[in-house]
TrEMBL record, chain A:
Belongs to the prokaryotic molybdopterin-containing oxidoreductase family. Its cofactor is [4Fe-4S] cluster. Residues 127-142 have a biased composition (Basic and acidic residues). Keywords: 4Fe-4S, Iron, Iron-sulfur, Metal-binding, Oxidoreductase. Residues 114-160 are annotated as: Disordered. Residues 3-390, 420-461 form the Molybdopterin oxidoreductase domain. This is Formate dehydrogenase major subunit. It comes from Amycolatopsis saalfeldensis. Transmembrane segments: none annotated. GO terms for molecular function: 4 iron, 4 sulfur cluster binding; electron transfer activity; molybdenum ion binding; molybdopterin cofactor binding; oxidoreductase activity. InterPro entries: Asp_de-COase-like_dom_sf, Formate_DH_Act, MoPterin_dinucl-bd_dom, Mopterin_OxRdtase.
UniProtKB/TrEMBL annotation, chain B:
The chain crosses the membrane at residues 264-285. SUPFAM superfamilies: 4Fe-4S ferredoxins. [4Fe-4S] cluster 3 binds at C111, C114, C119, C153. The lineage of its organism: Bacteria, Bacillati, Actinomycetota, Actinomycetes, Pseudonocardiales. This is Formate dehydrogenase beta subunit. The keyword Cell membrane does not apply. [4Fe-4S] cluster 2 binds at C32, C170, C173, C185. Pfam families: Fer4_11 (PF13247), Fer4_4 (PF12800). It comes from Amycolatopsis saalfeldensis. GO terms for molecular function: 4 iron, 4 sulfur cluster binding; metal ion binding. [4Fe-4S] cluster 1 binds at C22, C25, C28, C189. Its cofactor is [4Fe-4S] cluster. Binds 4 [4Fe-4S] clusters per subunit. One of its GO terms (biological process) is cellular respiration. PROSITE patterns: 4FE4S_FER_1, 4FE4S_FER_2.
From TrEMBL, chain C:
Belongs to the NrfD family. The lineage of its organism: Bacteria, Bacillati, Actinomycetota, Actinomycetes, Pseudonocardiales. It is found in: Cell membrane. Coiled coil: none annotated. It comes from Amycolatopsis saalfeldensis. This is Formate-dependent nitrite reductase, membrane component NrfD. One of its GO terms (cellular component) is plasma membrane.
């Protein structure tokens, strides 16, 4: 965190100064470890075992926050008899189809789910149509739509409040995690038992009524074939300990690019509409009612999905969207399958995808398997790159690795590349949405240089020109009918960003809306993104609010604006006990004031303000009205935090430890080696290292340096940053250096089935060999910022990686793979692929290592 | 009148750099260059000195972040409690065959703005001067590049810029101070490792911080350059360190060279008189 | 060599900055200034005592040396106008300022004396200027020692009691050397004696520099500096020896002169190199300072 979120890290340092204990879990000793109390060095890709060990510690010793667990989680829910756990099936859950490598999730349900429909839904679950899970769910990475609340289950479960029923979630959990003992953790992660005990003690001692523990993660936890399950494991732990919805608790996802949170909220993702409304599917969603019925949780706040969707359609198509024409629902594009970035690249290689916009990304360096990316780019008709710099993704045709090796020739690449310089954030108005869902406005400080223009400018004028050119072909009606007028200003006719924010905020008959609760499904309101509704309440840009911390309370609601409803801590109803009283004075946030008949406290309550703690939903209630006064998790259909996820995940209702797809060791827990539902990509340009291969005996992990930014376009090109980390390097332990004859500051060649790259060697005690499964496992650290352009140049770590993905969200496994490392520089030119091929055939012949 | 000779109401301003909270992000290094238009250090050299690739303070690096990787005894040698209390524990691995753990010290160095500043004393042109904030600044239009300040500085801070010939160093952001702003490096520092303020107040704060650290078991915390009775009369920019100063590239006991200047002049004058006498004596005696 | 066990440092990197002056400019400046200073004094007394050739040579050397010395300084500064900044102020705390205020009038006076000597114009003024330059001469011989000592450079600073004597002695031998080279032997009696005094002082001071300054002496004994200073000592001794027969043997006199001058050069380059070395290796900073703290 110190490396990649140094500004946010000041709060960790402040917490430390106030007595917090800081524990850093990372394969490498980093700047973060340097100022932490404990550094737990584990093998990359094994955190489920580590966190599972903590869960086991909690359950085995009865250390969970029982009142919280009973009130706010689904611990008491009873599962169907058909459900079978990894314990029963040696690493698989029930419902696995080995052919498709997918789960049918119907057995993961609550008992008698069909017989007990959710309050008020009135309709039984359509049998066979398990929307949240399964193949289509997986292909469309539907899991990503849970950015604002979980999957829906249409049933209130049977429960056993004593938690004794053998099929209740609590008992299932207990059995499931029983084998994650400290010894198993040591064996899998390489973490000494004593250190594990110290951490377990610290985490549990610091949880409960009086104290809370926070877990902070970023891509060290997500770039895995089991990334979503990493986060699930942390969620289970935190929920058991009562650390969600309370001050100082939570699982805090540190996000990446300055507005990457914004780009999932108002998504650049293929499978989402603004506000985590799923993108309709061509073969499922024929009309608005069908779309909303299938996806809206009938209870909880997602029960209002129709209002959110209609308001969005009104924002898109204005007057043209009317009740009579389903608010132009049919104008929306539809999914037909996986259109994620890696699937698209494969389609480029296969000649199906012909044109491509790269706006603010540099996949030739930044995405897994660089060659795969560049081969895709080289097989297009046209490519538009909008960037601050002439990045590798715009110059692959002259200096990509494949030109050097002769695999591609400049003269034979047909892609026409249009490079359009982009204005940087300092050169335009707009907002960033950051890690804590905070919208912060930035004002233009300088005019963009030369031809550079804002992305808003580009899309607005592109749309304008297209709309001018299209005729009256009915096919183009969605374009013609779009609301597309924004005031422009200045010599370059830059559209007003505030007017876009106003459109996102939405308005009703009386002007700008103040909250998403005002949204209607009758077409009387418009809203570009329901969760952002209220950012421009009263026509005031709250994202630009800048009240200094010293002038307000600790929640600091006057600094910028957080979605939803300027709420700073989500699910903060859980900060009070079921009766609405604070769990403790020390951790008080929101409490029920019976006198006033409302929830009060410094934060905006994440609950209906006047719904009393003893509220019992009447028969037939819908949406939020169907949730009780103690159902704190209001975006869930059942109002509960899920220890067990009966729906919504492609790879299991509970996390289980699987080895990374490329791992030097066998799975210590199950004979199922790797994630059974991992998403592989079959291509001759995407070869995989065999698991436990002797040819690739080392683990490598990729990461960032404070001094550079991602694919390097914004840092390797700047002299002040380039000089701080001038060259691509690898980090190895003294023991590995001795084993392979690597010299400090010498060169090393690192090889995988994809390619070989070279890096200067830093021998450092900060990298530690680990004892894993009775063997010493060495890890190689590779910062992934380099490429052939800019001031500081070097081979790209991503050329070494394959594309293998998490089935829920299609993220690549960038944090754990295998390689070999040798002293000296890599072969050049055509000798390089030959060298790699030799390795590959050796690896394929070779026996797997034991263990 | 201040020790440094400055007269006025403006309190002395300076830095307290608390390296125990430095995260080595180098924001200070970059912010300084951005604000002051300092050229890049020149050359893209991988130095292999941990994550330090700019090496030292100099004409093009007015803030410099040092990185020190040290082995520390493995957790098995030290009771676990102590390890935690260090604030900089080992990569915890009490397995029997374990190699030592590591600690990683980071520290942002800067011109010390000495109370008795040798650079300023020896500057023949008056280009180096003491500001109303009691800081030491080069007036670039006066500096003639004589380079005398360079070997005079007991901390090896000031340096002649090759491309230009004149001497450059931290100005303690004289322009920003004048406008009521804090220096760029301090502003950029996310963890408040760099604290800017009135020197007297900073010294108090630093003393408290050392006590806090000592109380929490960080016995090795110590201040450096805070003492007005040291060889340079105390630094305007002083530090909290977690190891000996030389480990960070700082001199353990710097003394302003001009402290001995009167003795030097005396010696030189006496010797000059000796030369005169020797010549005179040589001309005595027989005329041939 | 750095013995790592003895002291700790930041990757063996220097703590101090090396003197920023250019070589050979500054060692030459030191040498020329010294030779000029001694020559001016010799010339003044030669004039008073009626040794015209010695006076003439002395004046020429004083003027040529000091002007060359200024030129060397200007070359080091890079731009001629930058020298003028030296005369903006007179700062007693800056040996370079004081030195500039010695060097400038001295070179002016020496130039006037030399010009008059060469042209025969205004002989009175010339003599007066020569006398004044002669009075400043001794200062020219020693201020450069303060210039070096008044730095943090360990081997220079620690030698602040020694360098003036070394430089003064060396200036005397250089002045004497120039005279031995240029002046007919009938007039060289005083310079032989001055040279011998200088040589004695120089040898004694050099010995002290090499052994009497603790760790700071090491750079004077070792490496390039050690070689140069060893050569300087040999040349000085040779010069002194040869000078004894200079009155009888013109060639020996000339050789003595050359030896003395060469010794002067070696001394300045050697002392300079020792300083640089002591700044380069952090042990010369850390070890003595640590000892000081331990005391
Ligand atoms: N300076 C800087 N800041 C950045 C960025 C940048 O490029 N430079 N990028 C931004 C972006 S886009 C993002 S997404 C964020 C990412 O922020 P981070 O996630 O912090 O970035 P990484 O360095 O990629 O990975 C973090 C750590 O995960 C560790 N790790 C690897 N594998 C595992 C594992 O299996 N388990 C555990 N526990 N740790 C593991 C790595 O050693 C590394 O130290 O940073 C953002 N901030
Ligand atoms: N091996 C490995 N690979 C990884 C990761 C890893 O940890 N390991 N991390 C992954 C992660 S989390 C991420 S986010 C990606 C990042 O990978 P990319 O997004 O491909 O890389 P960036 O270099 O961040 O590309 C952003 C580009 O946007 C440009 N830009 C900046 N501002 C603007 C603007 O306002 N408009 C326009 N049009 N362009 C702009 C910049 O110049 C830069 O070139 O890398 C991924 N790849
Ligand atoms: S670059 Fe921006 S996002 Fe990253 S740490 Fe600095 S302020 Fe935060
Ligand atoms: S540290 Fe050096 S440059 Fe800075 S004021 Fe002191 S003597 Fe001058
Ligand atoms: S280089 Fe400039 S600042 Fe340094 S002493 Fe000479 S004139 Fe003064
Ligand atoms: S005070 Fe100003 S000049 Fe000095 S280091 Fe900080 S930013 Fe640079
Ligand atoms: S900005 Fe602060 S934390 Fe970052 S390197 Fe500089 S002193 Fe350390
Ligand atoms: Mo990211």
């Amino acid at each position: 965190m110190a490396e990649c979120h140094p500004v946010g890290f000041q709060w960790v340092m402040e917490a430390k100064a106030r007595g917090a204990k800081i524990i850093h879990v990372d394969p490498r000793f980093t700047r973060t470890s340097a100022v932490s109390h404990v550094h737990a060095a584990l093998r990359a890709g094994t955190d489920i075992a580590f966190l599972g060990g903590l869960i086991n510690h909690v359950l085995r010793n009865g250390l969970d926050f029982r009142e919280y667990v009973l009130a706010y989680t689904n611990a008491a829910a009873i599962l169907t008899e058909e459900f079978a756990d990894t314990e029963d099936l040696d690493g698989l859950f029930s419902g696995y189809d080995p052919e498709k490598r997918q789960y049918d999730i119907s057995t993961w349900a609550y008992e008698d789910a069909d017989a007990t429909p959710a309050a008020g839904s009135g309709e039984p679950e359509q049998s066979g149509e398990h929307h949240h899970g399964g193949e289509r769910h997986q292909r469309a990475a539907r899991g990503e739509s849970y950015g604002s609340g979980g999957a829906s289950v249409h049933a209130k479960p049977k429960t056993d409040e004593t938690l004794q029923h053998p099929r209740c979630v609590y008992q299932v959990l207990k059995r499931h995690f029983a084998r994650y003992t400290p010894e198993a953790v040591a064996d899998i992660c390489g973490l000494p038992v004593e250190q594990f005990a110290e951490i377990a003690e610290a985490v549990t001692a610091n949880s409960g009524r009086e104290r809370t523990t926070a877990w902070v993660y970023s891509v060290g936890w997500t770039h895995h074939t089991v990334g979503a399950q990493y986060i699930r494991t942390a969620s289970i732990l935190q929920t058991l300990l009562g650390n969600i919805g309370r001050p100082g608790g939570g699982i805090l996802a540190l996000r990446g690019h300055a507005s990457i949170q914004g780009s999932t909220d108002i998504p650049t993702l293929f499978n989402l509409l603004p506000g985590y409304i799923p993108m309709p599917h061509a073969h499922e969603h024929f009309d608005l009612d069908g779309f909303v019925a299938a996806d809206a949780g009938k209870t909880g706040f997602w029960g209002n999905m129709r209002a959110y969707t209609v308001s969005l359609l009104k924002a898109y198509w204005g007057e043209s969207a009317q009740p009579g024409n389903d608010f132009r629902f049919d104008y929306l594009p539809r999914l037909t399958g996986d259109h994620g970035t890696y699937a698209t690249v494969q389609q480029q290689i296969e000649g199906e995808c012909k044109g491509y916009f790269l706006v603010g990304e540099n996949p030739a360096v930044g995405s897994a398997n660089g060659k795969f990316q560049r081969l895709g780019l080289a097989n297009l008709d046209w490519l538009v790159v909008r960037d601050l710099q002439l990045i590798e993704s715009a110059t692959f045709w002259k200096n990509g690795q494949e030109i050097e090796t002769g695999e591609l020739a400049t003269t034979e690449i047909g892609t026409e590349v249009f490079f359009l310089p982009a204005a940087a954030h300092t050169e335009k108005d707009g907002s960033f949405t950051n890690t804590q869902r905070l919208l912060q406005w930035h004002h233009k400080a300088v005019e963009p240089p030369g031809e550079a223009r804002s992305d808003l400018w580009f899309y607005y004028h592109l749309g304008r020109l297209i709309r001018e050119r299209i005729g009256d072909d009915p096919r183009d009606a969605p374009l013609r009918d779009l609301t597309w007028s924004y005031p422009t200003a200045g010599p370059t006719a830059d559209p007003s960003a505030e007017s876009v924010l106003a459109e996102i905020n939405g308005h009703g008959p009386d002007g700008p809306l103040a909250a998403y609760t005002e949204l209607k499904d009758d077409g009387s309101t418009t809203c570009g993104c329901w969760i952002y509704c209220g950012v421009r309440a009263d026509g005031h840009n709250h994202a630009a609010d800048r009240k200094p911390g010293s002038e307000q309370d600790w929640v600091a609601g006057g600094w910028a604006w957080a979605w939803p409803a300027n709420r700073r801590i989500l699910y903060n109803r859980a900060s009070a006990d079921p009766d609405g009283k604070a769990w403790s004075e020390r951790k008080k946030l929101i409490t029920w004031d019976a006198g006033q008949g409302r929830w009060v406290g410094p934060d905006v309550p994440d609950f209906e303000v006047t719904k009393p703690p003893d509220y019992v939903p009447p028969e037939g209630a819908k949406a939020q009205a169907a949730l009780g006064g103690a159902d704190a998790f209001i975006m869930q259909t059942d109002g509960k935090a899920w220890l067990f996820a009966p729906a919504g995940l492609a790879d299991g209702p509970l996390p289980a430890h699987y080895e990374p797809f490329e791992s030097p060791v066998g799975n210590a827990l199950y004979s199922q080696q790797e994630s059974p539902t991992r998403q592989t990509l079959d291509s001759p340009h995407n070869r995989y290292n065999p698991a436990r291969s002797k040819a690739y005996p080392y683990v490598f992990t990729t990461y960032r340096l404070t001094e550079h930014h991602t694919a390097g376009g914004m840092s390797r090109t700047l002299p002040y940053l380039a000089e701080l980390q001038p060259e691509f390097f690898c980090e190895v332990s003294p023991a590995l250096a001795a084993e392979r004859g690597l010299e400090h500051l010498g060169w090393a060649t690192i090889v995988s089935a994809r390619t070989a790259i070279e890096a200067r060697v830093l021998v450092t005690d900060r990298i530690k060999p680990l004892k894993v499964r009775g063997r010493t496992i060495h890890q190689v650290g590779l910062p992934y910022h380099w490429g052939p352009n800019g001031l500081s140049r070097g081979d790209a770590a991503n050329d070494l990686l394959s594309v293998v993905m998490d089935p829920n969200v299609h993220i690549q496994e960038a944090k754990a793979a295998t390689c070999d490392i040798r002293p000296g520089r890599r072969p050049r030119g055509p000798a390089l692929p030959v060298h790699v091929e030799e390795y590959r055939s050796r690896a394929e012949e070779g026996e797997p290592t034991d263990g | 009148m201040g020790e440094s000779g400055y007269l006025g109401d403006q309190p002395r301003m300076g830095f307290f750099t608390d390296t125990s909270v430095c995260i080595g992000c180098k924001a200070c290094e970059v912010a300084c260059k951005e604000w002051n238009g300092v050229p890049e250090a020149g050359g893209l050299d991988l130095l292999g000195m941990s994550y330090d690739n700019t090496g030292a303070l100099g004409s093009n690096t007015w803030r410099h972040v040092a990185f020190i990787e040290q082995p520390v005894p493995s957790t098995k040698d030290v009771p676990a409690r102590d390890v935690v209390a260090l604030g900089m524990p080992a990569v915890g691995a009490p397995a029997p065959d374990e190699e030592p753990g590591v600690r990683w010290l980071m520290s942002s160095d800067v011109c010390k703005h000495c109370t008795h500043a040798a650079c300023l004393d020896v500057c023949p042109t008056g280009a180096l001067f003491r500001t109303e904030f009691d800081t030491v600044v080069v007036q670039q239009d006066i500096c003639n590049g004589c380079g005398y300040c360079v070997p005079a500085c007991p901390y090896g801070v000031i340096e002649k810029r090759k491309s230009d010939g004149r001497a450059f160093k931290c100005t303690l952001c004289y322009d920003r101070l004048g406008a009521g702003l804090e220096p760029a490096c301090a502003k950029a520092c996310p963890t408040d490792s760099i604290q800017f303020g009135e020197l007297d107040e900073l010294r108090e704060r630093a003393a408290e911080r050392v006590t806090t650290l000592h109380d929490s078991g960080v016995a090795e915390a110590r201040l450096y350059g805070h003492d007005p009775n040291d060889g340079v009369g105390g630094d305007g920019a002083f530090f909290l360190l977690l190891d000996e100063p030389e480990v960070y590239g700082l001199p353990p006991d710097p003394v302003v060279t001009t402290r001995d200047l009167p003795a030097m002049w005396k010696r030189a004058a006496a010797t000059a008189a000796g030369v005169a006498a020797a010549v005179a004596v040589s001309f005595l005696g027989r005329r041939r | 060599m750095v013995e790592p066990a003895e002291f700790r440092s930041y990757y063996g990197r220097p703590i101090l900055k090396e003197p920023a002056w250019k070589q050979p400019d500054v060692p030459l400046y030191l040498f020329l200034g010294g030779a000029a200073g001694a020559s001016a004094s010799i010339a003044a007394l030669a004039d008073v005592t009626g040794r015209p050739e010695l006076a003439r040579a002395g004046r020429l050397v004083a003027s040529g040396g000091s002007i060359a010395s200024v030129a060397a300084l200007i070359h080091d500064l890079g731009k001629p106008t930058r020298f003028l900044h030296m005369l903006r102020v007179l700062k007693p705390t800056s040996p370079l300022s004081v030195g500039s205020w010695i060097l400038s009038p001295f070179s002016g006076l020496a130039a006037v004396a030399a010009a008059s000597e060469l042209s025969g114009i205004l002989p009175g003024a010339g003599r007066l200027a020569g006398a004044a330059a002669g009075l400043l001469g001794p200062a020219m011989c020693t201020y450069t020692a303060v210039l070096l000592s008044d730095t943090a450079t360990p081997s220079w600073h620690e030698a602040y009691g020694t360098l003036p004597i070394l430089f003064a002695g060396s200036a005397l031998t250089s002045g004497a050397g120039a005279a031995l080279l240029l002046v007919p032997s009938v007039e060289t009696g005083p310079v032989v004696r001055a040279g011998l005094i200088g040589a004695a002082a120089e040898l004694a001071a050099a010995r002290h520099a090499e052994t009497g300054l603790g760790l700071a002496s090491e750079p004077y004994r070792t490496g390039r500096a050690g070689k140069l200073l060893k050569a300087a000592r040999a040349l000085t001794a040779a010069g002194a020896g040869l000078s004894l027969v200079a009155r009888r043997n013109r060639a020996a006199g000339a050789a003595a002169g050359v030896a003395y001058l060469a010794a002067g050069l070696c001394t300045r380059f050697g002392v300079y190199a020792a300083g640089v070395e002591s700044a380069r290796d952090p042990k010369y900073v850390v070890v003595p300072q640590r000892e000081r703290l331990r005391r």
